[in-house]
Amino acid sequence: MQIRPILSALRHHRLATLLIALEIAMACAVLCNACFLIASRVSAMEIHSGVDEAALAQIKLDCDDCNANDLNARVLSGLGNLPGVQSVSVINAVPFGDHAGTAGITLDPAGQHSGGVVDFYTAGPGSFEALGLRLLAGPLPRQDDFRPIDNFLPADAPVWVTSALAEHLWPDANPMGREFWMDKFHFRVAGVLEHFARPGGGEGGPLTREWSVYVPTQPGAQLFGNYLLRAKPGQLQQVLRAAPAALAKMAPDAVLDKAASRSIGELRDGYFQADRAMAGILIGVIAALLLVTALGIVGLASFWVQQRRRQIGIRRAIGATRGDILRYFQTENFLIVTIGIVLGMLLAYVLNLLLMTHYELPRLPLFYLPIGALVLWGLGQLAVLGPALRAAAVPPVVATRSV
Amino acid sequence: MFAYYLDLALRSLKRNKVLTALMVLAIAVGIGASMTTLTVMHLLSGDPLPGRSAQIFFPQVSPDPTRPNAREPSPVMDYHSAVDLWSAHRADRQTLIVSSMIKVAAPDAALPPLRLDMLSTTADFFPMFMVPFRYGNGWNAGDDAAHARVAVISDDLNDKLFGGVDSVGRTLRLGSSDVRIVGVLKPWRPTPLFYEAWGAYTKPQDVMTPFSTGLEINDGHFQQYNCWHIPDTPGHLQNAPCNWIALWVQLDDAAKAGAYQRFVADYAAQQKAIGRFTSSITSMRSLMQWLDHIGVVPSDVRLQVWLAFAFLVICLFNTVGLLLAKFLRRGGELGVRRALGATRGALFAQCLVEAGLIGLLGGIGGWLLTLAGLGLMRRQPTDYADIIHLDLPMFLTTFALAIATSLLAGLLPAARASRVVPAMQLKVL
Fold this sequence. Notes:
The complex is a heterodimer.
Chain A: H1 4-12, H2 14-45, E1 56-62, H3 68-80, E2 85-90, E3 102-106, E4 114-123, H4 127-131, E5 135-137, E6 147-148, E7 156-162, H5 163-169, E8 179-182, E9 185-193, E10 212-218, E11 226-231, H6 236-250, E12 255-256, H7 264-271, H8 273-307, H9 309-317, H10 322-359, H11 368-392
Parallel strand pairs in A: 4-10, 6-10, 7-9
Antiparallel strand pairs in A: 1-11, 1-12, 2-11, 3-4, 5-9, 7-10, 8-9
Chain B: H1 2-15, H2 17-44, E1 56-60, H3 79-87, E2 93-105, E3 114-121, H4 125-128, E4 133-136, H5 141-145, E5 150-153, H6 155-162, E6 171-174, E7 177-185, E8 207-210, H7 211-217, E9 226-227, E10 242-243, E11 246-250, H8 254-273, E12 283-286, H9 287-293, H10 299-329, H11 331-339, H12 344-378, H13 392-417, H14 422-428
Parallel strand pairs in B: 3-8, 5-7
Antiparallel strand pairs in B: 1-11, 1-12, 2-3, 2-6, 2-11, 4-7, 5-8, 6-7, 9-10
């Protein structure tokens, strides 16, 4: 295939060529960055909560006038007896639910050396096993580890921290037995958890997402009304359907918080709803973008084919095959798209810089550029195929006619 | 002349329907996407108190002694500072804001108790924020001082509990206390919900009580913004080392605003001198400055606007390319007009009329797509879904943007087309 005649033909249509190339450049820039945005949303959604999401649900009751111990006892035994329930325990919060124990910790009793803001899970007996937390070091909490709350947390407690938090607090050191403080409360690390996401987003971004502390706690006046329900395999939905009626019977004085009383899976879906919606919008934008770009290519190519009917006829008459004509338009399109892609990669980089400054987005990984290029080359070839086939179908006899 | 150009444009558009449809479609899709996102942005970044927002200010101090080097004062205050500043009555109007969850029931309604967010505020709240009443009125300063058991409820709650009738004088049970309803609001939806210091887009609270009353009847259920020590009694934050109360003031002119700013600064300096504060930093932004400062519009919404406009630019390039091809193809026709005496300006105008007509058609398509896009936005699970609509300014902007885009797209092709050399074209004919 000779490229030179194509280039000299394009030189006659400099402006139109440039415009289509610019359109493709913009499309390439937006495409790469939008794909990157989608990928970062999707990866944000892949948080490892560290708990057995499929088997767990939160039940939240609001009761101002209830006696805490009485309510806990009624709910623990009442829900525990529902068919399909494996265990019920008291807990202050669950992953993807409302946060309840967010506080700043320090690595010294005087409160000088800050350890960052973490989430405390205060949880009653049975909750550790129910959550399905995986231990990296240390034993399971023992019966006497569950201590009564003094105001907000137990005054002095053994705690289980995630490996992410341990790595942040004591980099490259063995966290077992280390101490930290929160105001006057004192904690000593008794075990390390593989994963345990905090309820809401980490305040310091994705790196702080697992700064959680499991504190074994005696249920009581400061820990009641919020329950962790673990169902037998495959029976969670059935248990959740039966729960409201059962709760109304066992605790008629309490109001069931329906928005919070869901399975962890539903809470997770709710938590990421905005991210999913944004990813959906981005996919829509990409689709519309590719459509408009393709339409532009189809429009211009059809126009050129119509304009060059006579020339095509002459080429056919002097021996060019249909394949030659087809390849001519395909190569022409390939050249235009290539110019667009070269410009587009620069633009994609500029757009990424803008997004980085305004939306705290990381740098665009380079592999998005060749992917964007391949997509646009493919799109260009597809879009030009129709007009090019029509061009190839122009009979040689056209050359003899006056247009 | 315009009518003639319009006629020519219509003929030309009809001649190549596919190309016309492609151009109109490209503009419609671009306009639809841009206007959908722009309308959401416009609604979310609007003025929640038109006509009053310039006089509303948000004073801040920094009561947390563990942050002596804070560069930005706390958005909310501790009880001590908030009540000190409020009770000085140095502003034209001033109000304290705190909200808490409470169980709400109407003894004479058969509904199960609801759990609602209750706003506890002071009497100035209603005149200061121009809150509209359907029945009754707000309470007065005397009620604030007397810890009166009164409440104002929203139109929504009045519908739910009392079937929309005038419920002034009826009783509402909040937690375990009975309060008398003194006012029912008209539908009121300030967007954003500015008086919450963190600028949410939720609806205003359904129940409002005097600040002093709310603190009594819902004692033990208040949430702090932050504490520098654990409060002795959870949920009871008076005299606790916690920030949790917002203060808003109304200052009717610049001199008063300046004076109040000095008053707040003097207060902070004095508190630092007696050792209660460790930082005398203060700030007093106007309502709109505050909303801007906290970046109230979600960053996703701003990102969508950027994306949509990048998309519109692509559609613009697309249209320029297609118009160029189209106008140059008509070189013969334009050459004849030139030869018959039409000036270059006349050809240019003719081409622009055609571009503008495409813009108008694209605008109609864009308007329909915007309505569809906003319909989709309304179905998203956001706090602001219920307020999304296309208002008149945005409706007009849709068409203005569509026509402006198409004229812009038409400029270059029209300039090129009007430069035809008549002799060249006529020779070919």
